[in-house]
Design brief:
- Helices cover 43% and strands 14% of the residues.
- By secondary structure, it is of the alpha/beta class.
- Strands 1, 2, 3, 4, 5, 6, 7, 8, 11 and 12 form a 10-stranded mixed beta sheet that branches. It has a two-stranded antiparallel ribbon with strand order 9-10.
- Helix 6 packs across helix 7, helix 8 packs across helix 13 and helix 9 packs across helix 10.
- It is globular.
- The chain starts with a helix and ends with a helix.
- The N terminus is likely disordered.
- The protein binds 2-acetamido-2-deoxy-beta-D-glucopyranose.
- Belongs to the AB hydrolase superfamily. Lipase family.
- GO terms for molecular function: hydrolase activity, acting on ester bonds.
- This is Lysosomal acid lipase, putative.
């Protein structure tokens, strides 16, 4: 306990800083709908876009949802960009980024539907969902040659990117501001049930489609599995799902650091709650904070630990280092402490299950049973393509194989030797080894 308290003192200043950044949380209740359309060609180079973003960063915080890094990067690359806003049933106002298919935009008249899957027509609608501590920026930061959103757009898809509640693009709620504890009372469970369902329904309405393709990175798959098992009717709305570095089962590996995280998980939850800390932001201080917890006791040396943590956030990737550090910071985003602690519980239990309040009454109240219920993966009928790296931080090969075994409809699975989870964004071979295979399967898909 003493260790943890010291650590919290280290980490406090960064939380105070994160409060100051919160200003996008506004009072002006934005409804669901499209905010801006920009399909004009932009003459800016990519570097110009970044510069403008940095120069305007201060002003942007106070502006509404009109400009951001993702939109600037898309426009700088000369692709059409749109922002859409979706409100969930529980009041979270989520921003969606879109690179619409130019075939759909030809007459800038959306009512003139192009038939899908025809030569020159739209290949289909695809939703990309980012991982833990990330945002839609992950799918564009590496630029038009290798960013997943761009290569999908080039292949003829109508590309949408979600931003989970609590991330820098989705920090509004009709009833709460991010300063209130109630705003942060969510995990990836709610991101699946609340955010993904609202986003998918909105996209299908907007594009007049029955189903869409889904590509999830890391937590993007955890949330999808939650949705598909808890609300099985969404299985019909997804034709194929591709999972990159999917997180589902945890704790089967022998990683001492991961074991340590599980050991301190309950204390961490209690301590952060006591101190009214509900948001974790991926700053140096937080890395240090988590590092100190995870790397205490029996775990390997501090250096090994911080290396692994750096990898967890993508700092260690060679290509990430090449990108402007400021840009990487802008690509990263905060999460609720509950999101992390919920993952910690999966390591403890080795089950894919709902949040355990570790309190008889609360569990009874929420679940009508003492134990946190497991997600029933036999209800997930969507065909999956799964890609995992052998150098994953949280997930071991055994965890990954457990997911492959328990998902009823795995079409293909591969483990990429030496890859960590950020390789699915930054690795120089990601197009060749992963994206091109996903695109091929989606293009060959017919109902
Ligand atoms: C899980 O779902 C399957 C398929 O709907 C069902 O047959 C099975 O009873 C469920 N298992 C549990 C533990 O609820």
């Amino acid at each position: 306990m003493k260790v943890i308290l010291q650590l919290v003192l280290i980490v406090m200043p960064s939380f105070i800083r994160s409060e100051a950044i919160d200003v996008t949380a506004g009072r002006s209740g934005t409804g669901t709908g499209k905010v801006i359309v920009s399909n004009r060609k932009s003459s800016n180079g990519l570097s110009m876009g970044i510069k403008n973003f940095e120069r305007d960063a201060g002003r942007q915080r106070f502006a509404s949802y009109e400009r951001d890094l993702v939109i600037d990067t898309i426009e700088a690359a000369d692709y059409p960009a749109e922002i859409h806003v979706v409100t969930t049933k529980d009041g979270y106002i989520l921003k969606l980024h879109r690179i619409p298919d130019p075939a759909l935009l030809k007459d800038t008249d959306y009512s003139e539907e192009q038939p899908l899957n025809e030569p020159g027509g739209c290949q289909g609608v695809v939703l990309l969902m980012h991982g833990l501590f990330s945002t839609a920026a992950d799918f564009v930061v590496t630029g038009p040659e290798s960013g997943l959103a761009f290569v999908l757009a080039d292949a003829g898809f109508d590309v949408w990117m979600g931003n989970a509640r609590g991330t820098r693009f989705s920090r509004k709620n009709l009833n709460h501001t991010p300063k209130e504890a109630a705003f942060w009372d969510f995990s990836w469970h709610e991101i699946g049930i609340g955010d993904l369902s609202a986003i998918i329904d909105y996209m299908l309405r907007q594009t007049n489609q029955q189903s869409l393709f889904y590509v999830g990175h890391n937590q993007g798959i955890t949330a999808l599995l939650v949705l598909l098992s808890e609300k099985p009717r969404y299985n019909r709305k997804i034709s194929i799902a591709a999972g990159m570095a999917p997180v589902a089962y945890l704790g089967s590996g022998n990683n001492e650091i991961v074991k340590n995280l599980a050991k301190f998980n309950d204390q961490l939850w209690k301590t952060l709650n006591t101190l009214n800390i509900f948001e974790l932001t991926p700053t140096e201080n937080v890395l240090q904070f988590l590092g100190n917890i995870i790397c205490s006791g029996e775990a390997p040396t501090q250096t090994v630990c911080s290396d692994l943590l750096a990898e967890m956030f993508g700092y260690s990737s060679d290509q990430a280092k090449l990108l402007l550090p400021g840009m990487l910071d802008n690509a990263l985003s905060g999460i609720s402490t509950k999101q992390l602690v919920h993952y910690g519980q999966l390591i403890q239990s080795r089950k894919l299950q709902q949040f355990d309040y570790k309190n008889f009454l609360t569990n009874m109240q929420r679940y009508k049973q003492v134990k946190a219920p497991e997600y029933n993966l036999s209800k997930v009928t969507v065909p999956f393509l799964l890609f995992s790296g052998s150098r994953e931080f949280f997930t071991s090969s055994a965890d990954f194989q457990k997911l492959v075994k328990n998902l009823p409809n795995v079409e293909s699975q591969s483990e990429l030797p030496g890859w960590g989870h950020m390789d699915f964004i930054y690795n120089a071979q990601v197009y060749l080894k992963v994206y091109s295979r996903i695109i091929e399967v989606m293009q060959n898909f017919t109902t």
